[in-house]
Every structure is written in structure tokens, then in C-alpha cells.
Amino acid sequence: MLADIGRIYPLSRPYNVPMTVKEEVRRDRLGLAILGSTGSIGRQALEVVRLHRDRTRLVALVARSNVQLLEVQAREFRPLMVGMVEEGPARELERNLFGTGIEVRRGPDCLLEAAVHPLADVVLNAVVGSAGLPATLAALGAGKRLALANKESLVAGGDLVLRALSGGGELIPVDSEHSAIFHCLKGEDPNAVERIILTASGGPFRGRTREELEEVTPQEALRHPTWDMGARITVDSSTLMNKGFEVIEAHYLFGLSYDRIEVVIHPQSIVHSMVEFRDGSLSAQLSVPDMRIPIALALFHPERWETPAKRTTLSDLRSLTFEPVDKHAFRCLDLAYQAGRAGGTATAVLNAVDELAVELFLKGKIGFLDIERMVADVLEAHQPRKVEVLQDVLEAEEWARDRAMIWWEENRK
Ligand code: NDP
Ligand code: MG
């Protein structure tokens, strides 16, 4: 698998880790690599790690271009390496960290270098977008425990991720719904599972009609009622595409057919998802919405370590409500089921078009409902192919982005 990734991002520079550091890490501390450390998940992961400085060792921190924050993080956590994907910011970071002894790596390679770093026991992939897929494959191929927040890895390349798992790595979900299911399934017979029920907050536009949705602005879409997240996932939550991605994510993580994965709206975001078993019993995992809980569960699995999260009180549980999804107003969820059932490259296309559509929406170039129209039309035109290697995903994504740009040209008002 790594050889396959290597054709696209050759791992050119070998490591030179001083033995003293290596021994310290190996003996008594959990070695952590955090990809996307400057993002919402990355920052919350560091808040958790800050509580456990005596038991952990930051091996690598990687971001795309946020020099200021990566420098602050590097000075506080003293990782062995930091990586910056964009060249210009990487050079600035190199200058700023000169003399600190922290190695700075640059370019897309640095994601892979951190993912396979020999001293990383656990790799947290908190990059946004399918740019995170090669690192997921690399970490699993290198036999790491992968704490996966980057759901696009599974949406774009689920078949590849499953194959990479045979390399001896371990995959622990960070997404709150999947973390909930993962823990409900602990110690259970997988054959006793009847269905899983993913909960969705419904986003900021719950209850709106299609006519009302036509006019919503990026500012409104970025105001999520219960979670504070990065821009892409916040907009995806407002269209329910995020929930569609999570259905696909659940399909790959738990090996269930799409007929056995359901979605229910639960505006309070306290019940993080449920599993129904053969005997009619339901298991659920509950807490106030705070990503630091599932992040800690994934980083320190199978142990439970402290987090800074607020405790859930009985008054938080007083009114828990559940309602069906309004599939007429929000069509992205059905589009995701459709792509998931089609399989092969269809889900990579789904993700790539949505990624571009969200970017155009945030720049004010298309309307809110154009996101689903663009996805629907490009998906309709796509002939799914089997995914054998990473190149198949990359080609499908390129095709999807080209088609989406044509759609935009044709539909510009
Ligand atoms: P953010 O946008 O807040 O952060 C993204 C991180 O990835 C940043 O560190 C960013 O670096 C880095 N990054 C962006 N593009 C690239 C790239 N091309 N190559 C390498 N690094 C890149 O996103 P979130 O933290 O919200 O989300 C991260 C992932 O976790 C997503 O897949 C999301 O769906 C998933 N997730 C997030 C949740 C949340 O609560 N936020 C909940 C559940 C899942 P820089 O800052 O330098 O640009
Ligand atoms: Mg989620």
C-alpha cells in the first residue's frame, strides 16, 4: 500500500532520530502525531494532550499554512518534527523555529512522513478534505493506530482504507457518532447488530422550507447550533451532507449495508448515536456535545483518560427529542445514500463536488441549494468505476471537479 502511495508522494527523506529521544518515547510515553493540528479538532486534541504531558510525547504536528499557530504549538509541545504543506509558509516557519532544534518539513510529503514516523504510536488525522486520504493509507500501512477524524478518507477511499487495514494498523473513529457506535459495540457480537441510528442536530436550518433555504447566506450556514467546527463541516452540517458522509463512514467502519444505517434528527446533540441489537435492545452513548471526549477515546483507546469536558448533568437530559429528517427540504442525505449504494468511485465524486461547491458557496459564487444541485447533476453524469488504487480516486476527483466547473459555467446567473 505504501508503495502505491509512494508513487504519488515519494517519501524522499529518511529520518534520523537520536537514540536518547527514541528510548524515552518508547519506554513510558505514548507517541502522538497530529495531522491538522491548527484546525478545530487538532486544537481540541492538544487541549486534551496538555492534561497528559507526563504520559505523552508529541512526535509530529502538521498543518497546511497557519504559521503563527503552528509555531506557538511547536514552542509549547516541542515535537520532534513539524510539517507545513504549503512551501511559502513552511519557509517562514523554518526561519521562526531556527535554533529550537525542532525539525521543519515541508510539502505534501510531510503528512506522510508524520503518519509513518517510527516514534508515533497513534496518528490523529484531523486534516480536512480528501487531502487526508494518503496519510490515512500510509499510517495504516505502517501498522499505526489511526484516530480518524478525517471522514473524507472513508468517503473518498473507503475500499482502499479497508484494504490498508490488513497491514496490521488499527482504525478508531473520532467523529462523535461513530465513536459512540464504536463504544456501544465493545464486547458485542457484530452479528447481533440489527441496525445503527446516527443522530443529527439538523443544523441551523432545521424546520426551514425549500423556498426559505434558497436565500440563506454563508454567515447563517456557518452558525451551527450545537458544535463549533471548521468551515467545511459546518456548511456540510447545514445541508445534511455531513450526515450523508457519516452514513458512508459508518458503512465502511462497521461493515453494515446501507439499509441498516438510519438517521434521526436530535437537536440537542446529547445522544451521539445508537445501536439496535437482535433482542430489541438499544444502546446509546450520551454526553454534552464536546469533541474532546471522542478525541480522547480515540487517542488513548482502550483506556479512558481525563478530558477538560464539562460533565453532563440530569438537566442536560431533561428534554431529548427525536424527529425524522425532512428529505424534501434537505436532499443531500439521499444523494449520499445513492452514491454509497452505487459504490466504487461514486463516493469520491460526491465528496469532491461537495468540497468545491462548499468553497464556491462560501465565496458567494453559488447559492445554498446550488450545492445539492451541483452534486446531484455531476453524480448523475458519473459512471462509477471500481477503486483498486489511490490513482483511481484521484482521477475520479479530477473528473468530478472538471464537471462541477462546467456545471457552474452553465448555471451562472
Ligand atoms: P478545520 O478546517 O478547522 O482544520 C483543518 C486542518 O487541516 C487545519 O489544521 C488545516 O491547516 C489542515 N489542512 C487543511 N487543508 C489541508 C491540506 N490540503 N493538507 C494538509 N492539511 C490541511 O477542520 P476541522 O478540524 O473542523 O475538521 C477536520 C476533520 O475532522 C474533517 O474531516 C472534519 O469532517 C472532521 N470532523 C470535525 C469535527 C469538528 O468538530 N470540527 C467533528 C467530526 C469530524 P491550516 O490551519 O494551516 O489551514
Ligand atoms: Mg459527526
Written description of the protein model:
With 413 residues, the chain is an alpha/beta fold. It folds into 2 domains: 2-150, Rossmann fold (3-Layer(aba) Sandwich); 178-411, Rna Polymerase Sigma Factor, Chain: A. The chain contains 18 helices and 11 strands. It has helices at 2-8, 19-28, 40-50, 67-77, 87-96, 109-115, 133-141, 152-164, 176-184, 210-213, 218-221, 231-239, 241-254, 292-300, 332-342, 346-362, 368-381, 390-411, and strands spanning 30-35, 56-63, 81-84, 103-106, 122-125, 145-148, 170-173, 193-200, 261-265, 271-277, 282-286. Strands 4-3-2-1-5-6-7 form a 7-stranded parallel sheet, sandwiched between helices. Strand 6 (145-148), helix 8 and strand 7 form a beta-alpha-beta unit. Helix 6 (109-115) packs parallel to helix 7 and helix 16 packs across helix 18 (390-411). The longest helix is centred in the last third of the chain and has 22 residues, at 390-411. It is globular. Residues 6-14 have low confidence and may be disordered. It binds NADPH dihydro-nicotinamide-adenine-dinucleotide phosphate (NDP) and magnesium ion (MG). NADPH dihydro-nicotinamide-adenine-dinucleotide phosphate (NDP) is lined by residues 36-42, 63-66, 85, 111, 126-129, 131, 149-152, 175, 227, 229-231, 233, 291.
